[in-house]
Amino acid sequence: MAFEKGESITINGVSNTAIISDASDKPSYYDDKYIRTATELKTGDCISYQNKTWFVISQEDKSEKSYRAKMRRSNYKVKAVLEEVLHEFDAILETVSVSIDGGKFLDTVAGKITVTLPTDTFSDKIEVNIRFIKLGYVWKVVGVDRSQKGLNIIHAEKDLIGADDDMGNEIANKNLIAVWSINVSDGNRKVNVGMDYTYTPTVLKNGLEYTGATLMWQSSDVSIATVLDGVVHGVAVGFVAISVSMAVNPSVRLDLNIEIAEKIPDVITYKMYKANLDGTSKDYTTFTILQGSTMLFGMEKYINGVLGANDTYTFTLNPNGVPSGNYVYTVLDSNSVKIQNKLMSTLKLILTATSDQSGQYITQNIQLKGLY
What we know:
This protein is mainly β. Helices cover 0% and strands 52% of the residues.
């Protein structure tokens, strides 16, 4: 069957094509159609067709190359407060009576109504005593039929209007809705290509910090930046929107505007210091050793002016004419050496430390001073 000649639809949000035909040639209260497609269909599948929402309400009829099922158009949206969160569902309302001429019509006078919803994480939470507003009435759930796989069939009866029922916006028990928000302290910012930045969001429920929320992160353009559990990684130069929302209530959402900038090369500098043998009393300016004393000489690495993780170094000592009997030179480790002044000299030792990682080096003249 040439489905490429069919009509454009989506099945559970995925683009597809299908052949659509009327389910009956007789007038009916329900808007039912047959759908045939090469993709497997299941009861409760959500079909988007002609800018309307439809649900598969029958089992599939499978042939060698296609799947066929009956779908019914959603005729209303229903709002319900579940676990302090307001949810809105596409639904089929089905309180139907037979008129004198044999036609069917929606009968709310009888005080009972049936609402059919596809099963999902949220509609599965609808239980007895949940209330909703539709057609100018308040309804209370009196039973839930889950016997048809893929569908929740909700049975409800009329209820009295309460003080917390918002009839205009069709929200029952509005007082049960928690006020949620997501905050971050650092907001919009710049991240360099190849670098990471970690956001630590705070979720507030009714103004108080709430620690039990599961959050979902999303990048508007993963070719510019990716995000995983709040860690934004710069991929390419540009601007991108990073969003974080609550998994159970995606409408609670925070959008962040991020600029991904070209990475500026780090400025690496080095410093040599003199210190006591235990590393205390570092001195970066006076490189002298009194006769009879032993001093430690070490290296530090700075990244953009901030002390960072150190390199390893190769140290070399040039006596520069100082007699070998005047000093004792010992390499302690890859970051430091010690020099003992046994006898003063007017000449200066030349100590060089070369980074094993960058190849940069620093040289310092060291004076062996007498006691007086």
